[in-house]
Amino acid sequence: MSRFLPLFPLNIVVFPGEKLNLHIFEPRYRQLITECQANDTTFGIPVYLESGVAEYGTEIKILSIEKKYAGGEMDIKTKGMGIFQIKHFHKQMPGRLYAGGEVEEVPLDLKDAPVQRQQIELLLKKLYHALGIQSLMLTLAPDFKSFDIAHHLGMTTEQEYQVLICPTEEERFDMILKHLTNIVPIVLETELLKERVKLNGHFKQLLPPNF
Fold first, then answer.
1. Where does the Lon N-terminal domain lie (predicted)?
2. pTM (2 decimals)?
């Protein structure tokens, strides 16, 4: 069943459960946030790609308005809820400055995929170690979901969008696993290259081959 949702297109992907802080400065979106806050309603962030406003996005709940500025700007805290599909997009709603659309909720499949998670965890350890950001592993829950790590994989916005629209958790994990399988060897080789470059010009103590 479709319903109306005010829309705030952005060139980012917001995943369900994600906390997002936004600085609102454009008049049209100041109006959107003010009305949603007053009516205790949600709005949507459809992903804006090179081709324009994408078909899918994430419903957003306003948690709080942290600060209001003299010029009307504001800082807000929000949280991603469910995923929606746009059925009819309106660039500007009648009598409003902002966009909106008729949307349908997309069922959210979070069925566990422990085999892929274990493989992903091993690759993440290698990746984060090579990049010197091992501390990220400490924030990862043992039963992490695809949405928990999707922003920490070096994916492009288009790739993150593909993760968002995958219908099942197993498919999302498969996509992430394929991405990590491709990039981890490249990152590791780059780190080895750095070490070889650093050694260039230094005195080397090498063990001659025994022949």
1. 4-182
2. 0.88
